[in-house]
Amino acid sequence: MRKQLYVAAALACSPLSAVYATEININPLGLIIGSLNGNALFTLTEDETTKVGPSFGYLGLDLGDVKLTATTIGVRFEKSTATQGYDDGAFFAANAGYTSLTVEETDSYSSTNCEATATGLTATGLVGYGWYFDNGFSSRVAGGYTVGNLDIEAQCDNEAETAAEAYGGLALEWTLGFRF
């Protein structure tokens, strides 16, 4: 039994042994409105031009009678056009994720309570440019397009509705990062 545990632990850690560098990126503008989003990228090639890792997002807004909470978790793949991955240059990125959104509204005058939840899958394609500094810090900008499909359930007092909605829209990104 002990041998199987060692083999399982070695297999679980083997993908990490192929990581050449790790990069953490955060959107600083989102912090102003209560949003935290970014990604952790692990370089998988010796020239550090191919990266993959988890992406995440959280938004919590309290607008008086309306409260909004959104979370996203996904995976990101990125390919740099630079000859070395941490040279300044263009990159292409793809994100796939799962999104959950809740909106609650309480009308204090009429005692009406409404709640809507939406869950679904999203996909984003981006083209961007990154500046990498010798001390490990980076700044990156990107633009692209996001598509997704949401399953929506809404309830207002005793009335309930459901719907499925496809959507698409512009995606913009600015992140500050650090690699180690």
How would you characterize this protein structure?
The protein has 180 residues and is mainly beta. The chain has one domain: outer membrane protein from Thermus thermophilus HB27 (Porin, Beta Barrel), CATH 2.40.160. The protein is 9% helix and 68% strand. It is built from one helix and eight strands; from the N terminus they run H-E-E-E-E-E-E-E-E. It has an eight-stranded antiparallel beta barrel with strand order 1-2-3-4-5-6-7-8. The longest helix has 16 residues.
Reconstruct the topology from this structure.
Layout: H1 2-17, E1 22-26, E2 35-43, E3 50-62, E4 66-80, E5 89-107, E6 112-132, E7 137-156, E8 159-179
Antiparallel strand pairs: 1-2, 1-8, 2-3, 3-4, 4-5, 5-6, 6-7, 7-8
Helix content, binned percent:
under 10%
CATH superfamily: outer membrane protein from Thermus thermophilus HB27
Corresponding CATH architecture: Beta Barrel
Strand content range: over 45%
Low-confidence stretches: 7-14
Query: Roughly how many Å apart are the termini?
Result: 36 Å
Oligomeric state of this protein? single chain
Order of strands in the sheet with the most strands? 1-2-3-4-5-6-7-8
What labels describe this entry?
mainly beta; 8-stranded antiparallel barrel; 1 helix; Porin; 8 strands; elongated; 180 residues
